[in-house]
Amino acid sequence: MKQTTLSKRDIKDLNTEISKTYGVDDFFSKNDFMAMADDTYVMKDGTVMFFYKQDLLLPSLSLLLSNNFLKKIIVNMGAVPHVVRGADVMRPGIVGVDTYVKEKEIVVVVDENNLKPLAIGQSLFSKDEMQEMETGKMVLNLHYVGDEVWNYLNAE
User: Fold this and answer.
1) What domains can you pick out in the chain, each with its CATH number?
2) Angle at 32 between CA 30 and CA 36, to 5 degrees
């Protein structure tokens, strides 16, 4: 694992990117111990907080377990085993969508019973479009429980 400590300037640039992408200001303090691992994983105190995939800066599920700042797509319990194995979210499994979800927005997929994060995805349609449709793929699954990001530190 190649790891590089982030400078205060790097942290400021990262905060700017997080603010532009997710609307969350000053996510990290300039005094936080931050590192970039394998040119992909943004780590704070040894935990993956964000990662880059397809030029997108995405939050990790472990971060969202303690600080969820994304809009939610709620799925029924029948969809859970598929989503946590990396399947995209299909319309029949969706039981709820946060207000103002837009097309191509990064969202968190949660289960209907516990509202626990299962996956990070990119919505393929707006909330209104999703509600009008009865079938089809609604959310592209980008990160899920048990994938390479989830297991990154455990694989070392």
Assistant:
1) 3-59 (3.10.450.120), 66-144 (2.30.130.10)
2) 100
Instruction: Per residue of the chain (156 residues), give pLDDT as tens.
Output: 789 999 999 999 999 999 999 999 999 998 899 999 999 999 998 899 999 998 899 999 999 999 999 999 999 999 999 999 999 999 999 999 999 999 999 999 999 999 999 999 999 999 999 999 999 999 999 999 999 999 886 554
CB neighbours of 126 closer than 8 A, spacing ≥ 6? 101, 102, 103
Give the separation between CA 23 and CA 31, rounded to whole angstroms. 21
Are the beta carbons of 144 and 75 closer than 8 angstroms? no
Given the DSSP bridges, would you call strands 47-53 and 56-59 parallel, antiparallel or unpaired? antiparallel
Could you give the count of Cα atoms lying within 13 Å of 111 in the half-sphere of its Cβ?
15
CA pair distance 81, 14, nearest whole angstrom: 33
In this structure, what is the dihedral angle of CA atoms 8, 10, 16, 17, given to the nearest 10 degrees?
A: -150
